[in-house]
Specification:
This is Reverse transcriptase zinc-binding domain-containing protein. It is a single chain. With 336 residues, the protein is mainly alpha-helical. Helix content is 51%, strand content 4%. It contains 14 helices and four strands. Strands 1-4 form a two-stranded antiparallel sheet. The protein has a two-stranded antiparallel ribbon with strand order 2-3. Helix 5 packs antiparallel against helix 6, helix 6 crosses helix 12 and helix 8 crosses helix 9.
Length: 336
């Protein structure tokens, strides 16, 4: 049986030679022919970055404005702007080595009070040791998968909350968007994962497995609905990694008003799907978009205070029903 330590050492050597021979693990980038294992490691690296910082010993390996070393999540970096003449100084330059303490006057002169207070609270031992990297979220500084999982979960929640909280929509739409970000909708695929005895095929089209992406984007019903929604399909159709990344990309390429309508259309698609499953009520794409447009208009009328200068964020309008019908007619002509 192989020695696990030897096997790990071989992997480390292979990765170093292939992916960061001229650099280090933290600066290694993606390549076109990288392996699945290395791609997975790079994904995990972002989580590790959010919890790893330097423990100060001599201070000679740590650059003040380039390395994470201040014990303050989540960047572990100074908030004080870097002066051009100080950009390459090391943490050791902030110490009085003969007295085994920090140079308080220098630190107070360079840093904001909040940074200075935290820096001066970092203990310096009389028997200096080498600088070392530690895991901040463990008392002993030891990395564990369990701790990293909790850090990743917090980052995901904060990120998904920002994606939904920054877009002002009705609460039920916001709750739906949060569940969409977390892949927490009861699609047939998710129900099968929970050991429910259901057919994983799409409840609407019956052709493909119904996951979140299929339900709100790939299903024939969803595609027809997006086509008449007056939203740019070139933006809507780009799905990357998961629903959270999809929503980020859409928000980046749509204005505020379009983002609101986008979430409401997603919610309307899911509602129509549920009406089919629960009530056997078949709804046309035209009715789905009409319902979303009316819901959006009613919401704007309730919450937006009209002024003499209309808000730029709500200059975009939902499609009128006659335009939707004309689009459907054009689609039918193209098919014919």
């Amino acid at each position: 049986m192989e020695n696990p330590k030897a096997t790990r050492h071989n992997y480390e050597q292979d990765f170093h030679a292939k992916y960061f021979a001229s650099g280090d693990f933290w600066s290694a980038g993606r390549t076109s022919n990288m392996s699945f294992t290395w791609r997975s490691i790079l994904e995990a690296r972002e989580v590790i970055k959010s919890g790893v910082r330097w423990k100060i010993g001599y201070g000679q390996r740590v650059r003040v404005w380039h390395h994470p070393w201040i014990p303050r999540p989540h960047t572990f970096m100074p908030i004080t702007p870097c002066h051009p003449f100080l950009q390459n100084i090391q943490v050791s330059d902030l110490m009085c080595h003969s007295l085994f303490c920090w140079n308080s006057k220098l630190i107070d002169h360079i840093f904001y009070p909040e940074d200075a207070r935290i820096i001066k609270s970092i203990p310096l031992g009389r028997s200096s040791t080498a600088d070392s990297q530690i895991w901040h979220f463990d008392k002993r500084g030891t990395f564990s998968v369990k701790s990293a999982y909790h850090v990743a979960l917090r980052c995901l929640r904060a990120s998904s909350n920002s994606e939904t909280e920054q877009t002002k929509v009705p609460h039920k739409v916001k709750i739906f968007a949060w569940r969409l970000c977390h892949d927490a909708l009861p699609t047939t695929v998710n129900l099968c994962r929970c050991w429910c005895n259901v057919d994983p095929a799409c409840s609407t089209c019956g052709y493909a497995r119904e996951d979140v992406r299929h339900a709100v984007l790939d299903c024939h019903f969803a595609r027809q609905s997006w086509a008449i929604s007056n939203l740019p399909w070139a933006v809507i159709s780009v799905w990357q990694k998961g629903s959270l990344e999809w929503m980020r990309l859409v928000r980046k390429n749509l204005d505020h008003s379009q983002c609101k309508y986008f979430l409401i259309v997603c919610w309307s698609l899911w509602r129509c799907r549920n009406q089919l499953v629960m009530e056997q009520l078949e709804i046309r794409p035209l009715d789905c978009i009409s319902m979303a447009s009316k819901f959006f208009s009613d919401y704007l009328n309730c919450v937006i205070v009209k002024s003499s200068s209309p808000a730029s964020e709500d200059s975009w309008t939902t499609p009128r029903k006659d335009k939707i019908i004309r689009r459907l007619d054009l689609q039918e002509q193209n098919r014919g």
